[in-house]
Fold this protein.
Amino acid sequence: MKYRTVSYYGEFHCIGGICEDSCCENWEIDVDDASLKKYMKQGGEFGKRLRENTRVKEKQFINKGTRCPFLNEDNLCDIYIEMGEESLCETCTNFPRHIEEFDNLKEVSLTMSCPEASRIMLAKKEKMTFSCEEGTDEEYGLKHIAPVHSFAFWKRGHVNKLDKPLFDALFSAREFIFSILQDRQEPIAKRAATVLVFASAVQEYIDGGRYDNILKAIEDYGQPDKRRQMEEYFGRFRNRVTEKENWMRQILNMYEGLENIKPEWRELLSEGMKIMHGENDLKGMLVSAGMLTEESAGEEGSSFLRNYTLSYREFANYYKEQVYEFEHILVYYIFNYMLGASYDHDVFTKVKFAVVSCLVILELDISVWLTQHKEFLYEDQVKVAHAYSKEVEHSYNNFESLQLVLSAHPILSLENILVGLLS
């Protein structure tokens, strides 16, 4: 088996009880069949405790409030202590690793839902790179996990088979996307916009079964003439601040409708709506919703929109030396999810997910910056990115709901996201 990992993969070590957000809290822990069988056969008092705190039919531990029943007062795992590291279930062994399997290849990354993994990724100033080598699960810190591939059930039914010709084409397309996202001569918003338009073209070729055209698109989008054409096209989406603010408000509302895993996430969203979208400013709200124009709303409404724009521009200037963090976030989501389209044929939704995720994180960053009197530190970015990932990537319902909305809802059309990126 070959393993492709991010360059900093080997730097991760669990910090255990000193972690500010234990991975043993705030979500259900699924137990694989082999571990479940072992737990149910365990003898003594600890075996009794295992049986009393496990839903066998659902294959889950029974949480005590928000905590795993085996998370002790020192925030350490009693299963690890009593039975040894090899007795941890697949979920607990593999976290915070994200695993995607493609025939004889596993791609393994460190998920941002772990604060320590986020810390390692966001601290890197250099471009994110990947390596691919032969190996075993044990060498990469994994317990064998049967492959479960996300699939867009609304597009392709429950087909769970790798489309190898598409995989090969998308692998090349993903490398090209990495090169665009890591072109630090261009503004990050323009890089994301270019990737989004390219992915839209790729999706058309997939839908038409024209996989060879994906390679032609890579060549085409790399040409200077195409870049000039794209620049002219992007001009249509700049300076549309009212639309951007209204769109971003709706996006945050959409996230508020998801299942809440962490109270801190709800607080971040609520503060973002209040600070960035003027909940106490009635005229600003009416302008944002398209019910009034900037002119008819008068000075108060216009002032709100000016402040919204200035907040973006001022934060961009304040944080310009750390733009690589947003580059890493985009590359992270593309690496983790894009090749999943080799199973469900829906690459555009996955690229939209990466771009919208980055936009939401940026919006909440600015809110935190304003709340903290225009101070935003590296640890603040870790907090926001980690909270977002835990909310979205580790709730099956939230993740699938977002994929469905990204795939089908008009608010998440290419044009609307470009307004959100470029205005």
About this structure: Confidence is low (pLDDT under 50) at residues 147-158, 297-302. Strands lie at 2-6, 54-55, 60-61, 97-102, 105-110, 130-134. The first strand starts at residue 2 and ends at 6. Residues 24-94 form one domain.
